[in-house]
Prior knowledge:
Blueprint: H1 13-20, H2 26-31, H3 42-55, E1 61-64, E2 72-78, E3 81-87, H4 90-96, E4 101-105, E5 108-111, E6 114-117, E7 121-125, E8 132-137, E9 146-150, E10 152-156, E11 159-163, E12 171-175, E13 179-183, E14 186-189, E15 193-198, E16 200-205, E17 208-210, E18 217-220, E19 228-238, E20 245-247, E21 251-261, E22 266-278, E23 281-283, E24 288-298
Parallel strand pairs: 1-4, 4-7, 5-8, 6-9, 7-10, 8-11, 9-12, 10-13, 11-14, 12-15, 13-16, 14-17, 15-18, 16-19, 17-19, 18-20, 19-21, 20-22, 21-22, 21-23, 22-24
Antiparallel strand pairs: 2-3
Helix pairs in contact: 1-3
Keywords: Repeat
Pfam families: Beta_helix
Protein name: Right handed beta helix domain-containing protein
Amino acid sequence: MDAKAGALRRPDPCQLTCTLLAPVYGKLSRFGRASGRSKRAKPLLCQQAANEILRSITRRQIIAVPGEVLIATAAISSAGRETSTGYQSISEAITAAADGTVINIGPGIYRERLIFEGASITLQASPKGSDVLISHETDKPYEATVYATSGACTLRGLRIAHRSPSVANNYAVFSQGASLTLEDCDVTSTSGAGVGLEGGQLEVSRCRIHNCKQHGIALFKGLDGQDGNANVRDTAVFDNGLDGILVKDGARLEADSVRAEHNAGHGFNLSSGTGALTNCLSGNNARGSILLGDDFELDRPSASN
């Protein structure tokens, strides 16, 4: 990996093909050894094999594949138009994507910051169950690993790590007025909270949010008064430095089958706002299971120790 975090370089055709074709080396043999061509032809042969793979890429998807350095090869489709091109990062693919685009991300570590500013995009590990880590560690303040300000975006099957020395707005994943969905994700932050919402809509399903220096999830209304609503289901929030889930400033939480355990604060800190807890478990938290503030209206309390 380049000495600079997140530094990228475009590999030669041979490097690109070796990254893409580890599971399908037979294609190289067909172009190379089977035909008896010399080693000097290898870059050209690798490029031929890469072109064949590009022609077989699934429609309506972007495919990003990391290697020793971060590289990505993609076919992007939107509104019935398809083009094939190369991206050196997930961020570049996001910039090029239109509404409805799906970005498939291959196994590996992606050291970059992802910003969503309008288009409705889905990012997902591919194939399903692959280990994909998106990590952003910086000395700059106020930089979430994933930052969404508008539009609707979905993250599926990703690990997200974060470090940024902010006093406020310190989140691994931060949605500020957008519609953000997390499915089957693992989120951690060594400097702040795992997931933050300031206005807009947040959907969290089957996630693990843990080992964050501050809260696991923190929910607020927008600074402009925009409602902040979160639905959290089948999710574990544990081993965080403050509360498992904090609800404040009039935000709303709908929690179903959420497990909040071993947090240094409360499992659920319901300071002000509204919400419902259904089939939730809160236990072994340093300051107690639930803190219910005078300005919080709880619909259906059902969390237990």
